[in-house]
C-alpha cells in the first residue's frame, strides 16, 4: 500500500529439528518404535509483482519443492484477488460494479463482499475517515498529482455527491451490493493489499506451512514464529527517513502490521505539501505530517486502520484504535521541525527492541 515499514527477514540458517510426539496406547499394545526426527525446516524467500507492488513471502519448509509449490499457490491467490479488487483494471469485478444501475442489487463474489463489509465496519468505527466510496476523489487527485494543480472547486463539489459509505448498501443474506448514488466509484486500495496478504498466508497454512510471513510493501501478514525464535523481526522507520534506517524492531507472530504515511508519495502544489492519502472529508491529500503503524490480529484490519488513523490525527486516531479489539498503534507526527510519538496504551507491552547497527 504505501509505507516506510520494512520487514527485516531473519538471517539465521541453523535448522531446527522437530520431534513427533505420540500418545500412549492401551497396556496390551506393543511398545511403539521411537520415530526419527522430522526433516529440518529451511528458510525460503519468494517474490512476485501484483496489485501495483511487490509481494514477498518468507517461509520455512522441509524442502524447496514444497516451499515453491506453496508460494506459487499463494501468489496465484493474490493475482486472482487483483482481478477482483483492482480499480485500475477495467474488467475487474470492482470496476464492473460501477456500471450497475443505481438502486439495483448486484450479486458479488465472496471476496469482494468480505472486503466491502470490512470496509464498512472500519468506516463506521472511524466516522468515515476510511471510506471505500472515495473513488471519485481519488480519480481527481491522481490527475492533480500529475499536473501539480488542485482540482477545481466545481469538480470537488460534483465528486462529493457520490462519496459516502452510507451510499453503499450491503446485504449479507443475499451477498449483494447496491449503489445508491449515480457516478459512484469504489476504491478498496486502502484494504485490498492487507486482505490479499492474509489470504496468501491462509493458502500457505492450508498447504502445511505455518511459519511464514507475507509482505506487500507496508502491509504484512505474519504466521507462526520461525524455528527457535520468539517471532518475526519487523523494523519501523521514522517519518521522513530517506534511507529506510530503522529506529525500532517489533517481534511479532500471528498478527498483521501496516504502516501508512506520506514519506514516499507526496507532492507540493502552490507551496503546500500534500500526501497521496486522500481525506474523504475534503477530497484532497492530507497536509499534516503523520505516520501510523498499526498492529492487529490480521493485515486486513491494519491496512485500513493505518489509513484511517492518518486521516483522523492523534487524538481521534487513538480513540478509534481503542474501539478495535486487540489493536495497537504508534503514531508519529511532525510539525515545525518537531517530531512527536504517541502510542496506544498496550503498545508498550509489545516485544520491542532498539534497532542495532546491523539492522540499519
At the first level of CATH, the class of the domain at 93-179 is Mainly Alpha
CATH homologous superfamily title of the domain at 93-179: ApbE-like superfamily
Number of strands: 17
Radius of gyration: 22 Å
Helix content: 25-40%
Could you tell me the strand content as a percent range? Answer: 25-35%
Structure description:
By secondary structure, the chain is of the alpha+beta class. It has a domain at 93-179: ApbE-like superfamily (T-fold, Orthogonal Bundle), CATH 1.10.3980.10. Helices cover 28% and strands 26% of the residues. It is built from 8 helices and 17 strands. The chain has helices at 64-85, 93-97, 110-125, 135-147, 153-160, 192-206, 299-312, 314-322, and strands at residues 5-7, 42-50, 53-61, 106-107, 168-171, 176-179, 212-216, 219-222, 232-237, 246-252, 255-261, 266-269, 272-275, 289-296, 328-335, 338-343, 352-354. The protein has an 8-stranded antiparallel β-sheet. The chain has a 4-stranded antiparallel β-sheet with strand order 1-9-10-17, with no helix packed on it. Helix 6 packs antiparallel against helix 7 (299-312). The chain is globular. 41% of the residues are buried. Mean pLDDT is 87; it is low at 1-36.
